[in-house]
Write a structure and sequence with these properties.
The protein is an alpha+beta fold. 38% of the residues lie in helices and 21% in strands. It is built from 15 helices and 22 strands. It has a six-stranded antiparallel beta sheet with strand order 15-16-18-17-19-22. A five-stranded antiparallel beta sheet has the order 5-6-7-8-9. Helix 8 runs antiparallel to helix 10, helix 9 runs antiparallel to helix 10 and helix 14 packs across helix 15. The two termini are 32 Å apart.
Length: 570
C-alpha cells in the first residue's frame, strides 16, 4: 500500500502517544532528502525519520542504522539552531491528508519562548520537510527549495509565508460517513466501481484502502456502522505485512482481504515500515549516493568491453598470417611472370597441388616490392599475436574487475560505498576532488571493518563487503588456519570462519553468507568453494580483492535472508 492519508492517521496516533512532551536531543541529515530527529521521551531515545524521498516519503520511528555526512548541510544547521533541545508539544494531521505538523516549543537566543512547526508533506516527488515560525507562519527553511518557476501556487523558500497545499473538496472519513453513503452503495453495486467512487468522495484513501472499505460495506448489516467500524480500526492498528503469491509485499495498518497471500504482523507501524522499506530504501540510497561510482564503473566496463571486441577481431585477422606468407613466397618464386603495373595476378599455388591462386597487387610497386609487402604483413600479424593475447588477458581481467565492483555496489549498504570510492580513487579511476583542501596525512583513510556474524554453535564469521575489506580480511586479519569461502566463478564477498576445524553445519551457514553476499543472491543451489587461508595467494600487481588458490572443496547452498538475519542477531 502507499503511505495514504488513513495510514498517516494511524501513524500520527502512534507517534503522538510515544513522543509528546519529548525533547529533541540530536538532529542529523544522513541523506539528501531525509532528516532524523532523535527525541528523548519516557527515558527512551526515538530516532524519528522524516523522509521527503520521491519514492519512499514517510514519517516513522526507525531503527535502521545510517551514516552521517562528514559536513552537516545548511538545512541541518538551521534545524539544530531552532530545534536543539526543543519540546515536542503535539503531532497533528491536516484533515486526512498526508501532511503532518510537529509542534515544538523552544527558547530563542534571548531566552524568550517561541513556537515552531516542523511540517512533513508526503506527496511523492513533491514531498518536503519544512520548518516554520509558529507565530508568524514564515518559512525558516525547507529540505527542498521550491521557487515560483516550479510552483506558482506557493513558494517554499526561507522568508516566504507558508501556505498549506491546495485543499481537495473531499470528506474526512474519520468525521463519519456522508449522508448519501447508502445511496452510493445502491447506485454502485460493483465493488471496483464503488471503490473508485468512494475514492473521489473521501479524503486520503489509497487504492488498497478504498478496495478494503468497499468489501467491508458489502457485508450484511448497517452500512454506516460498517463505515465507522472500518475507520475506527486505524485508531487500534494491527500492523500487517502482506506477501502476495508472486512475492510482492505491501503494508497496511490492519489486515486487508487478500486471497492466496500470507500475512505477517509487527508490534508497531514503525517496525512494519522498517521491515518493508529496509531493502527498498537502502537500494534507493545506494543508487543516489553511489551515482558517480556507478557512472564511472559503467564507463570503464563499456570501454573495456569495446576494447575486448576489437582485440578479438584483431586476433581473428592474425589467423590469416600464413596466407600472407604463402602469397609472398609464390610471388618470389614466379617474379619473372609478374609485370609491373598489374593490380592482380594468378599463379600456381605449390602448397595446394599447383591450383591457380589469385594475388592482389599494388600497381605502384615492383613485383619484388609486392612480395616484400606480403612478407611484412605476415611478420606484423605474427608479432601481433603475442601482443594481442597479452592485451586480451589484461582487458578481460579489467572487465571481470569492474563486473565485480558493480556487483558490490548492487549489494552495498550506503556505508559500504566509502571503501568502494576509496578503491576507485586509489586505482586512478575516480578523481579525489578534496586533494587540494586536505594534507596527505588527513586524506589517509582507514578501511572499514567487515560485517560480523555468529554461527549457531557460536563460531565467529566475518564477511568482507568490498575489495579493500576482502584484502584486509583474507590477507592480513585472518589466521592461516581459518577457513576461507567464496562463491564459485562469480563476484562475491570473501567470508572467513574464525576456526581451524569448523563443523559441517557452520561451513554450510558460512557458505550461505557467501552466496547471499554475491551475485548469486537470487539463485538456488549456488556453488561455494572453501579452503584454509594458508592456501590463498595474491599475485604481484593483482587488483584489490583478487586471489588465487588450490585444493578447494565445494558445497552447494540456496541463499536464505532469514538465516542471514539469524546469524547477524546471534
Amino acid at each position: 500500500m502507499s503511505f495514504d492519508g488513513s495510514f498517516t492517521h494511524a501513524m500520527v496516533q502512534e507517534l503522538g502517544q510515544a513522543l509528546t512532551t519529548g525533547r529533541v536531543s540530536k538532529i542529523n541529515q544522513p541523506y539528501a532528502n531525509e532528516v532524523v530527529l532523535t527525541i528523548r521521551a519516557n527515558s527512551h531515545n526515538y530516532p524519528i525519520l522524516l523522509s521527503a524521498n520521491p519514492t519512499y516519503a514517510r514519517i516513522q520511528v526507525t531503527q535502521i542504522p545510517y551514516v552521517n555526512p562528514p559536513v552537516p548541510t545548511n538545512f541541518t544547521m538551521i534545524l539544530r539552531k531552532y530545534l536543539q533541545g526543543a519540546i515536542l508539544k503535539n503531532i497533528t494531521q491536516v484533515a486526512n491528508d498526508r501532511v503532518v505538523h510537529l509542534q515544538f516549543t523552544s527558547r530563542n537566543e534571548l531566552g524568550d519562548q517561541q513556537d515552531l512547526l516542523l511540517i512533513i508533506e508526503i506527496m511523492a516527488r513533491h514531498s518536503n520537510v519544512i520548518l516554520v515560525d509558529g507565530a508568524e507562519g514564515k518559512i525558516l527553511d525547507a529540505i527542498k527549495h521550491v521557487g515560483s518557476d516550479q510552483n506558482r501556487y506557493r513558494l517554499l523558500l526561507p522568508g516566504a509565508q507558508y501556505i498549506n497545499p491546495p485543499k481537495q473538496d473531499l470528506t474526512d472519513p474519520f468525521a463519519g460517513p456522508r449522508p448519501d453513503l447508502a445511496d452510493t452503495l445502491r447506485d454502485f453495486p460493483n465493488q471496483e466501481v464503488l471503490a473508485q467512487t468512494l475514492q473521489h468522495q473521501y479524503q486520503g484513501l489509497g487504492k488498497d484502502t478504498v478496495a478494503a472499505l468497499a468489501t467491508a460495506l458489502h457485508q450484511p448489516g448497517d452500512v454506516a456502522q460498517h463505515f465507522r467500524d472500518f475507520f475506527a480500526t486505524f485508531d487500534a492498528p494491527q500492523p500487517t505485512l502482506t506477501i502476495s503469491p508472486k512475492g510482492k509485499t505491501s503494508f497496511t495498518a490492519f489486515p486487508y482481504p487478500a486471497e492466496g497471500s500470507t500475512q505477517q504482523t509487527a508490534a508497531t507501524l514503525s517496525e512494519l515500515l522498517d521491515t518493508y522499506y529496509q531493502d527498498k530504501a537502502e537500494r534507493d540510497r545506494v543508487q543516489q549516493q553511489g551515482s558517480v561510482l556507478i557512472r564511472v564503473v559503467r564507463n570503464e566496463l563499456k570501454k573495456n568491453r569495446t576494447k575486448l571486441k576489437k582485440l578479438q577481431r584483431t586476433l581473428a585477422d592474425t589467423e590469416n598470417a600464413d596466407e600472407y606468407r604463402i602469397k609472398g613466397e609464390i610471388l618470389t618464386t614466379y617474379l619473372h611472370q609478374v609485370k609491373r603495373g598489374e593490380t592482380s595476378v594468378s599463379l600456381p599455388n605449390f602448397y595446394d597441388d599447383n591450383k591457380p591462386l589469385k594475388i592482389a597487387l599494388s600497381n605502384q610497386l615492383s613485383p619484388n616490392q609486392n612480395a616484400q609487402k606480403y612478407f611484412k604483413r605476415y611478420q606484423k600479424a605474427k608479432n601481433a599475436v603475442i601482443y594481442v593475447n597479452e592485451q586480451l588477458k589484461i582487458t578481460q581481467a579489467n572487465v571481470d574487475y569492474f563486473d565485480n565492483i558493480m556487483a558490490q555496489i548492487e549489494l552495498a549498504a550506503p556505508k559500504d560505498l566509502v571503501d568502494i570510492r576509496l578503491e576507485l580513487q586509489q586505482g586512478g579511476y575516480l578523481r579525489d576532488h578534496d586533494h587540494l583542501k586536505k594534507s596527505k596525512k588527513q586524506r589517509r583513510q582507514k578501511v572499514s571493518k567487515p560485517d560480523r556474524f555468529t554461527a549457531s554453535d557460536g563460531t565467529k564469521i566475518s564477511v568482507g563487503k568490498n575489495n579493500l575489506q576482502n584484502d584486509q580480511l583474507s590477507l592480513h586479519t585472518a589466521k592461516r588456519t581459518d577457513i576461507w569461502l567464496h562463491v564459485k566463478d562469480m563476484p562475491g564477498s570473501h567470508v572467513i570462519i574464525h576456526a581451524d576445524n569448523p563443523s559441517e553445519a557452520t561451513i554450510l551457514e558460512a557458505a550461505n553468507l557467501a552466496a547471499y553476499f554475491s551475485k548469486g543472491r537470487e539463485s538456488s543451489n549456488v556453488p561455494v568453494d572453501y579452503l584454509p587461508v594458508k592456501r590463498l595467494h595474491k599475485p604481484n600487481g593483482a587488483k584489490p580483492g583478487y586471489v588465487i588458490f588450490t585444493g578447494q572443496r565445494t558445497v552447494y547452498v540456496t541463499p536464505e535472508s532469514s538465516l542471514v538475519e539469524k546469524l547477524a542477531d546471534n
